[in-house]
């Protein structure tokens, strides 16, 4: 590696959106750029958060002169719980670098990453993530929103719950089911908003509307809560977007309460850890449905047999969703996304479109 750099970006949302616990007024991203003496440049993505930025900068300083294809060695040298921490911004910083290194490896091989990793499929089923709370959005507006996702070809849609009383959320779930019909998967996501007993009440009242999963019903470390909820409902539990490394997912799998894992390669350790977690999940008969940025996960899902769904953010949620990257995925009418057959991981940024939003 000959040169490393980063660029931070942030843009306003058209209107604030709220999930079970948080309200978001902006979107942001960090692009990691690593150049090599072979003329190949690798790109990774992260977030411009205080702490993550500083750790990323300190990690990047150690890379010049090293072989980018030695991803295991580099990962191991950067992940140091004693010096940097173990499940937080240090792992997020490492993840963004690891994504760039795997991008380099695939480009050096002149292969799309999913083929380099083994290759399993060329199309991935997707779901559209929406259904946020926002000012002025009643049941009719919510129904119109999710129906528009079905018109885009989605065979699964996700909605937020947890920010209003259970009775109100059950009514929202009913409204969404009526709008999308009986054959489209309905995913509900609480973003850790509930205590286990509230989650049980919500799930039991929502069962008649046949949700495909109940995502993050409780805080990520409430393993006992996951077990209690799973024992009380027929709705599969999904979680993992706030989990880190193979060690964290080992412990999550050991609860025997989670049916679907939601690792985010931008947070939990990059490609290196994602593939290990996917293999652990496969050995335990569990599906992988990653959280976040569709571009970062498309190739990873195409490389594993236990991929179930790709999370896809539409422009209604992120106005720059189809402008951030040079080669954004295209939705197919059959509810799938075709994996681009270009060398690398597909995170090459659209610098012209991003330029007005650069910060720092």
Automatic annotation (TrEMBL):
GO terms under biological process: amino acid catabolic process; carbohydrate catabolic process
InterPro entries, alphabetized: Enolase-like_C_sf, Enolase-like_N, Enolase_C-like, Mandel_Rmase/mucon_lact_enz_CS, Mandelate_racemase_C, Mandelate_racemase_N_dom, RHMD-like
CDD domains registered for this protein in UniProt: MR_like
Source species, domain of life: Bacteria
Cofactor: Mg(2+)
Magnesium found in the keyword field: yes
Pfam families assigned: MR_MLE_C, MR_MLE_N
Sorted UniProt keywords: Magnesium, Metal-binding
Gene Ontology molecular function terms on file: hydro-lyase activity; magnesium ion binding
Gene3D superfamilies: Enolase-like C-terminal domain (3.20.20.120), Enolase-like, N-terminal domain (3.30.390.10)
Mandelate racemase/muconate lactonizing enzyme C-terminal domain ranges (all copies): 139-236
Keyword presence, Translocase: no
UniProt name for this protein: Mandelate racemase
Organism (species): Inquilinus limosus MP06
